[in-house]
Amino acid sequence: MSAVTARKGLMQNAPQLESTASSSSNSVAASPEDTPRQSPSSTSLSSLGSDSALDLKNANGKMLDTYGNEFQVPDFTIKQIRDAIPAHCFERSGARGLAYVARDVTSLAVTFYLFNTYLTPENVPFKSVRVLLWAVYTFVQGLFGTGLWVLAHECGHQSFSPSKVLNDTVGWFCHSALLVPYFSWKISHGKHHKATGHMQRDMVFVPKTRDEYASRAGYYAHELSELMEETPILTAGTMIGQQLVGWLLYINFNVTGHNYHERQSEGRGKGKRNGYGGGVNHFDPSSPLYESKDGKLILLSDLGLAITASVLFWVGKSFGWTNLAVWYILPYLWVNHWLVAITFLQHTDPSLPHYEPHAWNFARGAAATIDREFGFIGRQLFHGIVETHVLHHFVSTIPFYHADEATEAIKPVMGQHYRSDVKDGPIGFLKSMWRSARMCQWIEPSEGTQGESKGVLFFRNRNGLGVPPQKMFAPAELLGRTAS
Asked: Among 164, 197, 174, 161, which residue's Cα sits nearest to residue 71?
């Protein structure tokens, strides 16, 4: 037997090393409106007097984010957040929403017309220049397409207008045109909002635990603190793959979503898992991401995709596949890139916590997000989805054109728990992708924590950046097997 085979065999039988606290009483979240000031734990710091809280905090150990900043769990309620927001911020206008849709569709149409009318061999005789300008076309159309995607996202949250029929009609048309299964995504995305930061229920960009990261790299969890750093070229390759196919892997195989499908209430998750052939996707009405009542909506989403795919096939047959690639497919990949980048950076940052079930509640999860700054593109073309995401996770029905004001209103309530990274604007946004990729490789409890504090998890890495991972010893069972 080879050393590698022996290692894999031992890994499969090695005990889990990270905290896996159970949560029989807290596996189902309370209504956000009823989120208590105190923690679900009977030993919550916020449920005790200041002296007792300090003693318990010291007894449970110090929680440190990846930067080394001490972390304290949020203790405000969703009611306090909502009460701080001016009433007019909740008002939605269908006419205003439709005007933004018209603006984005017009931008797409005018750009298509201008490039196809004037970017010809007669007007631009040099082929290399034409290729460069067509590349610019795909980028610009990707920006406008992402804006339309965001408006359909607003429809899914019912923040587009007061009319559910209008919201779902506009959302279905816009998302279908972008090859997004509208209702399927809307349902799973709603579950993401209900369980943000929950390690066993969140639906997107759930980070790897220390054991999961180690297993995939071919090591034991206790060996991670001794590994050499990941080469920058490997980090870059991983990022490129994520940006190119991350969205497609998510909707087809639920990659980055939770993998606890056996708990699906109707028994749909038995034997199903994330990944190729696992039966977890956004197209099958029997997928464990959905309940039986959702079946017709999933099929309606599939119908929208089929219509768009048929139109695209006709365009390719009639005008050429190269034209189809330039007109639609490359801009589509740009849209997917921006979607993945935005979502990744909203939920992945060295300052952000994640929670085991016993330490989670809605307010804590909603606060485990971060606002960034992407300048004109973010605020105008992407409708502020980059800059006001924290507010969006607390109250997702506020339309984007009121989100800046509402964000300012909740900052005093959130205090130190409001997070933003706006340094260097759009350049800082792009830099943060690299920083997060290098610093946020897996999550684990802070060293020395216990009780509820052990259920608050932070990013760590093997690259020597920020707080180092915990030092762990090999389990006795593993040492015994190795010796024999």
From this structure: 197
Distance CA 299, CA 183 (A): 9
The CA–CA distances, whole Å, from 428 to 186, 226, 404, 408, 421 equal 30, 31, 20, 21, 8
Q: Sort 425 into a burial class: Cβ within 10 Å, 0-12 / 13-18 / 19+.
A: middle
Burial of 356 (0-12, 13-18, 19+ CB in 10 A): buried
Q: What is the pLDDT of residues 323-365, one digit of tens each?
A: 999 999 999 999 999 999 999 999 999 999 999 999 999 999 9
Residue 59 pLDDT: 61
Decide if pLDDT at 317 tops 80. yes
CA distances from 369 to 249, 348, 406, 426 (A): 23, 8, 16, 18
- Helix (H) or strand (E) holding 343, with range, is helix 330-347
SS (H, E, C) 35-80: CCCCCCCCCCHHHCCHHHHHHHHHHHCCCECCCCCECCCCCCCHHH
Q: d(Cα 355, Cα 360) in Å, to the nearest integer?
A: 5
User: Given the structure tokens 């990941």, which residue do they identify?
Assistant: 230
DSSP label at residue 328: I
70: closest CA among 449, 355, 435? Answer: 449
Do the Cβ atoms of 346 and 388 come closer than 8 Å? Answer: no
Strand pairing category for 456-460 and 371-372: unpaired
Pairing mode, if any, of strands 420-421 and 371-372?
A: parallel
The C-alpha atoms of residue 56 and residue 62 are separated, in whole angstroms, by 10
More confident residue, 6 or 360: 360
pLDDT(53) > 90: no
Contacts of 138 (CB under 8 A, 6+ apart): 326, 330, 331, 334
Return d(Cα 134, Cα 282) in angstroms, integer.
33
Q: How confident is the model over 252-294, as pLDDT tens digits?
A: 999 999 999 999 999 999 999 999 999 999 999 999 999 999 9
Mean pLDDT in residue range 147-159: 98
